[in-house]
Every structure is written in structure tokens, then in C-alpha cells.
Amino acid sequence: MRLRLFNPEGLKAVDYKAAYPELERTPEFEHMKGSELMFVWYYSNATSPLMEIIDREERVVEALKRSRFNPEPSEYERMLKLQFSEQLEIAIGKMSSYLPGARYLGWKALKAIFDQYQEIASKGTDYFKKTVGTGEDAVDEVDYSAYTNTTTKIVAALPGLIQRMEEGLGISMAGSSEDGDDVHGIHSTWFINRQDR
User: Fold this and answer.
1) DSSP assignment, residue 143?
2) How far apart are CA 110 and CA 179, in angstroms?
3) Which of 99, 139, 161, 181 lies at a C-alpha separation of 20 to 30 Å from 81?
4) Distance between CA 64 and CA 80 in Å, rounded?
């Protein structure tokens, strides 16, 4: 399994930005068509399978093929010479700046926080129970103040946390299984395999 960030594989160009809401909100990408942004991904994203192509001109050719981005003939010729438009240059810079490892660790942290919140909610007041005293004088007491403060904070934090988890920071895992290609999407509904949608 390989980590992929904003993976366009298996998506139609018109659906690419919608699949990753963060891309829709990124100013560097807002005026780009899906196929153009897919070209940017294939050419410059650290998790693109084309990053193995060292020769950047060859990478442009392959990225154009895979993205199905069809620029005007004059722009196409300039792109083959690595002379990108200002908009493409900015988008390539932005796409290449994403750190997949940091995003993966961030997603794991979000999931750990969510799991902790779930544990607190499922145990209820028992989570805040502590033993006071020793021996025969020991009594279990619930810290209702801590319970109320904590659950109030969880309720306030959950909508934002859930939204971030649904978006998944653009992360997915790509690779092979016995049944062929198997892509598990973390970018939305982190607990459901993409093929189940």
C-alpha cells in the first residue's frame, strides 16, 4: 500500500475538486479545470507515480496523457519545454509543497482524538469516577464538574473534527490486493472502502 495525497486516479476530471474539498478552497487551484489540476497532480505531487520519472519533460508528456489535459497547441509546445503559464507554475508550486507524511500523521492524530472522545462518551460518568479514601473507607465518586466541562468541550469540538475527518486531509492508500487494485479512501468517510460507495 502506498500513501497518496489528493489522488485523482479513478476519478473523472469534473469530479476531482469535489472529491477533495480542500482543493476547491485552495486559491491557487480555484480557476483550474479538473483535467488541468489533475495534470498538476501527476506532474508535481510527491505521491504521484510519475515522480519516479526524473526527466521532467518526459514527466510532462506522461502527466498530459494520464490527466487528459488538452491545452491549446501553443501552450502544449511551451509545456513540453517546461515553460508553464504563470497560473500553472503557481499551482505546481502549491501542489509540490504538500507534505504527505505530515498529513498522514495529522490524520492519525485526528482519529486518535475522535477515538478518545468516543471512549469518554461510551463510558459516560464512569470515565470520571475516582476512588477517594483507602481500605474500608474507600468510596467511588464521580467528578461531575469535570464530566460536564469535558463533554461540553467535546460537543463543541465534534462538528469541526468530523468535518476534518470526512475530508481526511486528502489522504488515501493505493496499492494492490488479491482482487486487484484496492483504494481505501480516507479523504471521506474514513471507515468505508471507496469501492463500497
Assistant:
1) -
2) 30
3) 99
4) 10
